[in-house]
Design brief:
- By secondary structure, this protein is an alpha/beta fold.
- It folds into 2 domains: 141 residues, Rossmann fold, CATH 3.40.50.1000; 59 residues, Putative phosphatase, domain 2 (DNA polymerase, domain 1, Orthogonal Bundle).
- Helix 1 packs across helix 4.
- The longest helix has 15 residues.
């Protein structure tokens, strides 16, 4: 079985938080609800949309807000979003070294694929699995579904939130938490990832010193 590195998408491979925040706030503004500040948004992002709107707008019709977000965001998902530095190179080198590279994200699969295509990463990934009716992270289901799709042996789960780390642990993977995304170092340290790093450079050092076994 090919060894697999599993990546979260938003805040891990792609710096997409500005577009997510802007779209989320647009929907709340249009519906007449207050705008959450960046600290509040950091607590929300990475969770299912219904949970995000439930907390941001208590008592609102969360279904309508989710529908409004899903109508608006796909048209603005790459207004400012870009891959983080070194991501294209890392994914390319992992592929050359024999690793399968998959995404396990809270996004729906079609939206995740659209974002990856828009930022030029589609050809550098072997599979994209969204949370399409699966329990969201920190449940491991989306990770396990991605691994099954490539018939692979999971090695690392790479993410930027505690949900990613906990899901990776539940799936039996090593966990690599990166602090350039949504959760800060102290928040991530509380769930004890195997590696806690500011970027993906250490991941390259871990995996590319030699070909995978």
């Amino acid at each position: 079985m090919k060894p697999v590195v599993v990546f979260d998408l938003d805040g891990t491979l792609v710096d997409s938080l500005a577009d997510i925040r802007a779209s989320f706030r647009h929907v709340l503004r249009q519906a007449g609800y207050p705008q959450p500040d960046d600290a509040a948004m950091s607590r929300l992002i990475g969770r299912p949309l219904a949970e995000m709107f439930r907390e941001a707008a208590p008592g609102a019709n969360e279904t309508r807000l989710v529908e409004a977000f899903r109508d608006y965001y796909p048209h603005h998902l790459a207004d400012h979003s870009r891959p983080y530095p070194g991501v294209r190179h890392l994914l390319g080198e992992l592929g050359k070294a024999g690793y399968a590279r998959v995404v396990a994200t809270t996004k729906k699969t079609p939206v995740a694929e659209k974002l990856l295509a828009a930022v030029g990463l589609s050809g550098l990934l072997d599979f994209v699995q969204g949370t399409d009716g699966l329990p969201p992270k920190p449940a491991p289901d989306v990770i396990l579904r991605a691994l099954a799709a490539v018939d692979g042996r999971g090695l690392w789960m790479v993410g930027d939130t505690t949900h990613d780390v906990l899901a990776g642990k539940a799936a039996g993977l090593n966990t690599y938490a990166v602090t350039w995304g949504n959760h800060d170092a102290a928040t991530l340290a509380a769930v004890q990832p195997d590696r806690l790093e500011p970027d993906l450079e250490a991941l390259a050092e871990l995996l590319l010193q030699k070909a995978p076994a």
